[in-house]
Amino acid sequence: MEAVSERILSVKEAVLTRRSIRKFKPEPIPKEKLEEILALALKAPSSNNLQPWRVVVVQDPELKERLREAANNQAQVSSAPAVLVVYSDMKDTLERVEEIFHPGFSEEQKQTRAANMRKAWEGKSDEERENWGKAQGFILLGFLMLMARSFGYDTVPMGGFNAARVKELLGLPSYVAITALLPIGIADEAGHEHHRHNLERVVQWR
Ligand SMILES: Cc1cc2nc3c(=O)[nH]c(=O)nc-3n(C[C@H](O)[C@H](O)[C@H](O)COP(=O)(O)O)c2cc1C
Fold first, then answer.
1. Whose CA is nearest to atom 7 of ligand 1?
2. Where does the Nitroreductase domain start and stop, copy by copy (predicted)?
3. Ligand 1: does its nearest atom lie under 6 Å from the Cβ of 12?
4. Nearest CA to ligand 1 atom 17
5. Residue range(s) defining the domain that contains residue 75
6. Gap between the Cα atoms of 89 and 146, Å rounded
7. Within a domain: residue 21?
C-alpha cells in the first residue's frame, strides 16, 4: 500500500487502495494534515448546501479509550491516533442558515431564503431533522475516507456504537445525530481485498 505523503493518490487510486483498517501504527497525524483532509472533504455537496455536518476530532488517549468502550469495545478506536466523529446538528444549521447562502445574494434575498428554509423545516421532529442530517453526513464520510487515502492514511467507517454514550462523552446535545466514527491513521495491517457485487448485480440500464 502507498506510504504516507510520498505523493497524492488520484481519486481512482484512492478508491482502489482504500480498505477498512482496524490496526494502526501509533504515529500521530500532523494537525496540518488532518486539517487539509478535513478542509478538502468539507467540499462535499449537501442538499440545499445546508452542510449540517459537524466533526469532533478525538486524539486524547483517555477519551479514545472511553469511546472504544462506547463502540462495542472495537479495538480500532483506541488503536488509531485520531478518531473523527461525524454528526449532524440541524438546530445549529437552521439557526444560522443565512451563512450557507452564496455571498452574491443580496441581504434581502438571504433573508427571504432563510425564512423559506426555516418554514420548510417547521413542524419536523428532532428525529426527522437529524435522520436527514445524518444521511448528509454519510456524503462527508465518503469524501473523508477518500481524501485520507489519497494522502496515504487509512480509515474504517464505524456505525457500531452507543450513540447516547458517545454524545455524553463528547458533551454533544442529545438531539444531534451521529453519522459514524472514523478512526484514521497509518495502517499496520493490509485489510481485506475488495469483495464487491459486479455491475450486472447492481445496475439496470433502461
Ligand atoms: C456505515 C458503515 C458502518 C460500519 N461499521 C463498522 C463497525 O462498526 N465496525 C467495523 O469494524 N467495520 C464497520 N464498517 C466497515 C465495513 O465492514 C467495511 O467497509 C466492509 O466490510 C467493506 O470492507 P472494506 O471497507 O475493507 O472495503 C462499516 C462500514 C460502513 C460503510
1. 158
2. 16-185
3. no
4. 20
5. 11-188
6. 23
7. yes
58: CB partners within 8 A, 6+ apart: 64, 67, 82, 83, 84, 85, 170
- Cell, residue 201: 448485480
**198 domain residue, yes or no:** no
Helix (H, G, I), strand (E, B) or coil at 8: coil
If one residue of 1, 18, 20 were mutated to test the ligand 1 pocket, choosing by the most ligand atoms within 8 A of its CB, it would be 20
- The string of pLDDT tens digits covering residues 146-166 is 999 999 999 999 999 999 999
Domains held by the chain: number: 1
Please give the C-alpha separations between residue 110 and each of 22, 44, 97, 114, 174, in angstroms, as whole numbers. Answer: 45, 22, 9, 6, 30
Nearest residue (CA) to ligand 1, atom 10: 158
Q: Could you read off the pLDDT of 75-108 as tens digits, one per residue?
A: 999 999 999 999 999 999 999 999 999 999 999 9
For 73, the grid coordinates are 469495545
